[in-house]
Amino acid sequence: MDNTRIFKTPFANIYPLYIQKVERKGHTKAEVFLILLSLLTVVLPGCKKNEATPEIITPKKWHILSSQPNVFLSSVSFLNSNIGFAVGSYLDDEGLFLHGMIFKTSDEGVNWVVTSPDTLHDLFTVFFTDTLTGYAAGTNCIIKTSNGGKDWITILEDTEIHLISMYFPDKNTGFAVGLFGEILKTTNAGESWEYQQSETRCQLTSVWFTDNQTGYIVGYWNQDPDLYGIMLKTKDGGATWDSIPLPARYTPASITFTTPTVGYITGGNSVLKTTDAGRNWEIIFTNPYGGLQSASFIRNSPSGFVVGQNGAIFKTVDAGVNWSRMEGATTHSLNSVFMVNYDLAYATAFDGFTNMGTLLKWK
Predict the structure, then answer these.
(1) Contact 274, 280 (CB under 8 A)
(2) Which in 3, 44, 269, 301 has the greatest CB count within 10 A?
(3) Who contacts 51 (Cβ-Cβ below 8 Å, separation ≥6)?
(4) Distance CA 156, CA 142 (A)
(5) pTM of the prediction?
(6) DSSP character for 94?
(7) DSSP symbol at 169
(8) pLDDT profile of the chain (363 residues), mean per 10
């Protein structure tokens, strides 16, 4: 039995016909072989099978980076894909605040180190103006670092303030807002702070500026039977604040802008959107699973996340026209979310029954 394996070239079927054709033109079989050999050296490289391994693209998903008991993580913020900070508080076994804490990562969330002293007040917000200079604020205080979070100093201490959100439109000018209607402003990188006239005692939960002069603040009053939201806008760097109506009984938790005219408010169980610099707002999404707490969008982009109660995470890639529910890694309530780029995001969560704080990552 002949076990010779036959290797068929692309010319296997036309070879006999080709011989007959060239022989009719007076070529010998040896000449025919040389002609075919020259053709094969030209054609076969183009017929070579692509041996490259196909790229396998793994779908991005949310997963837990770490969980710690008796830790309440209020906010997370990243300077770039590697360096980020999370702030919050340590709790006792009864769930009462003991003192503040700051975590830092320099390797895309793989490892986190504590960079704050145990005597720090509870912290609720963090904001960096560059890789070295950053601020955090919370109960009774504002603190600052000038060496990338290695050391922190208290730059303002006041028992009357309880700050929840902070924003710096440039390296010198910054604003902080709090639970008793307080608005604080600095124009010298935190060396001194001035109180602005908010004309309200509502809980102010979020502040955002689109430039040095134009800024927005949202909050709410939740003392029954009164329940309503508030929005303030300044066009003169905080010298005056005008009230802008929001839907009745809407309680906003956060505000963010992707352009000077396009912005989003998250709160209650809905997301509101403006396309005219805050003059008008419309509800573009309602979450049937519970309240929404925080939103993060890429600047000048239609892509963003909103997060909230019961592990709710929703993503849009078309500026809020459509929303897809993401399969989360936790059922805990999410407090904050930060989208670093199109492929990377982080969130913080907390479970009030177990006092468990969680850091999550989307990649």
Answers:
(1) yes
(2) 269
(3) none
(4) 5
(5) 0.82
(6) T
(7) S
(8) 36 40 48 44 42 56 92 95 96 89 95 84 95 96 95 94 97 96 97 90 95 96 80 95 88 97 96 96 93 96 96 96 90 96 96 93 95
Instruction: Please give the Cα distance from 309 to 291 (Å, whole number).
Output: 5
Residue 52's pLDDT is: 52
Within 10 angstroms of residue 245's Cβ, the number of other Cβ atoms is 12
Residue 23 DSSP symbol: H
**Helix, strand or coil for residue 84?**
strand
* Alpha-carbon span 101 to 109, nearest angstrom: 17
The answer to whether residues 72 and 91 touch, using CB atoms and an 8 Å cutoff, is yes
| Gap between the Cα atoms of 336 and 322, Å rounded | 21
Nearest Cα to Cα of residue 102 among 67, 132, 138, 60: 138
Residue 34: its H or E element: helix 29-47
Nearest of 308, 312, 300, 311 to residue 342 by alpha carbon? 300
Q: Which amino acid is at 327?
A: E
- Residue 95 confidence (pLDDT): 86
Please say whether the beta carbons of 350 and 318 come within 8 A: no
Tokens matching residue 363: 């990649």
Distance in angstroms (rounded) separating the CA atoms of residues 303 and 262: 13
Cβ distance 350 to 332 under 8 Å? Answer: yes
The answer to whether residues 188 and 182 touch, using CB atoms and an 8 Å cutoff, is no
